[in-house]
Design goal:
The chain has 124 residues and is α+β, with helices and mostly antiparallel strands. Helices cover 39% and strands 22% of the residues. The longest helix is centred in the middle third of the chain and has 17 residues. The radius of gyration is 25 Å and the shape is elongated.
């Protein structure tokens, strides 16, 4: 197996994992020796930084991981930020005070923020 094919295999494994992968698992998955793996990881890291790609190969201890390039951190954060605050006076957003209350069935409950809730219809 040539080095470019090994680099492609390692890149696919790291991309699919999404988290740090130990070197021994990379060797097992790519069916290569540790020396070949080290050379392929060096080639991948050099390619990503030389071509100014949006990802980097990060090696920590005996693991490797693909991560976003630090120079694009603001753009990635802006594109992936999806949290929005609820409407200020939404009728479906119910937060109760932090004191103790009892439910309609008189069982004590701790008050908490229930988040978005559907309207409740009580059957009597």
């Amino acid at each position: 197996m040539n080095n470019s094919e090994l680099c492609s295999m390692i890149e696919a494994i790291l991309f699919a994992a999404g988290e740090p992968v130990p070197f021994e698992r990379l060797c097992r998955g790519a069916a290569c020796e540790p020396i070949e793996l080290a050379a392929a990881l060096d080639d991948l890291a050099g390619m990503y930084s030389f071509d100014r790609r949006g990802i980097r190969l990060v090696r920590v201890n005996d693991t490797a991981q693909l991560a976003t390039a630090p120079e694009y951190a603001e753009q990635v954060r802006a594109a992936l930020e999806m949290r929005r605050a609820p409407a200020p006076r939404s009728r479906r957003w119910k937060c109760w005070p932090l004191s103790r209350r009892t439910s309609r069935r008189h069982a004590p409950i701790l008050n908490r923020c229930a988040g978005w809730t559907a309207p409740i219809r009580w059957a009597f």
